[in-house]
Amino acid sequence: MLQSPLPELVASFERQRQALALDPDPTLATRLSRLDRLAAWLDSHESDIVRAIDADFQGRSAHETRLAEVFVVRAGIRHARRHLRQWMRTQRVPTALHFRPGYNRLMSQPLGVVGIIAPWNYPLQLSLGPALAALAAGNRVLIKPSELTPRLSALLASMACEIFNPNELDVAIGDVELGKAFASLPFDHLFFTGSTQVGRDVAQAAAVNLTPVTLELGGKSPAILDASCNVTVAAQRIAFGKLLNAGQTCVAPDYLLVPAGTAENVASHLERAITKLYPKLAANPDYTAIISERHRARLAEMVREARAAGARVIEVNPAGEAFNEARKFPPTLVINAPADTRLMREEIFGPVLPIVEYANLDDALAYVQRKARPLALYWFGDDASRRNRALRETVSGGVTINDCLWHLVQESQPFGGVGPSGMGAYHGKWGFDTFSKLKPVFHQNRWNGAGMFHPPYGHTFNWLLGVLSRIA
Ligand code: NAD
Prior knowledge:
The protein is an alpha/beta fold. Helices cover 44% and strands 16% of the residues. The strands form three sheets. A seven-stranded mixed sheet has the order 10-11-12-9-8-13-14, with helices on both faces. Helix 2 (28-57) runs antiparallel to helix 3. The longest helix is centred in the first third of the chain and has 30 residues, at 28-57. Residues 117-121, 126, 144, 146-147, 176, 179-180, 183, 193-195, 198, 201-202, 216-218, 250, 347, 349, 375, 417, 422 line the site of nicotinamide-adenine-dinucleotide.
């Protein structure tokens, strides 16, 4: 596999630092040109992207690549292009009476050289999504894609050579060791998408340089079915949200919470919904494979452990296909998995869906609250007061009501986790702000009263502070 040696990584970083010193605040035209080049490259390379990710996964739905990778990045570029002039504008902000006629302005400024570490599950979206925000904010960008998607990584590297000067955007290719070296570079901001475990290491490496980090992590995202929900519709939407990319989606519903006594009924609705979406699985190009044999074996082991512990396992395989050769994994519903099984403790990240029954809403909310704060939460139901309780009493990165995933692609909303599912956010203006220094500037007037606060301190000072303490 192609690999960037360490000295090359450091040289690439230094090149960008030097370029930054020469042009620390690129003009709107320069930033738009970078975004335009990226958009044009996406337009002309869509089929290369589809082929590369398909080869990396040994079976990635072309439609999913077009929707969840190319379309999402393209929409992000279009949104940024449309709003960039406004985002870059120095803003007027209010000034308290006693500081007038001085006035406040808030200006945005590129942070400098930004590092982006990407995972394998949406290798294009999660490299170029943050990159487009960083470029819009006027930064230099160095990307380290995942070692598990070598073909897409090579394509990104050739994109960088083709359309960017390496001092604008560059790609460092390598494994975990290169990732460690990458995270230890003194970036002006480090943006990491990946597992919570590695996120911790990345945050520690960045802390040595006091490099600020955005961590886009994972976790177990619940979907709560309320008694008021339409189970048929909920099952269709959950089946889509869970099986997109074969469940290898950070915001996929990880497990279902359903009212007591309804698990079997929900499971049979899900079986029907899955069969409709995927009448065949192993031999279906719409159904994506698992990224590696190691990941596939992990899922199989988690299901085996739950079954051995007494859970009821329902493998959905409408055409009765054999999965021996393919790296695909059949959609699997698991009822009554004990709480101490890996399935109920670890992020699943595959097409396996545990169904857990709850006695009442208090019980369901307590279940979610006991676990680490999730990246996403889904609520299905029409009862507004119970929905509002769930919204108020749980903390998660984001929420979609009566569907799955869609809050992630709202350019006018921030996307990010909370606590163990991440820190910081991006998308739209939030991405621009993440990669900008928002610098407050106070313009002092020639005529002002600030001199009254200077020493030697005395009556005037005491009187003025007394007055201001009452009105400020
Ligand atoms: P991972 O954490 O194993 O790897 C992510 C990246 O970090 C890879 O490029 C890898 O080479 C690099 N890396 C590994 N060890 C490193 C280290 N010590 N220092 C620096 N870099 C290192 O994650 P993954 O398996 O590629 O992705 C799956 C995880 O990502 C899941 O937990 C999923 O929930 C999460 N995820 C989160 C989001 C989000 O937006 N919040 C999106 C996609 C995936």
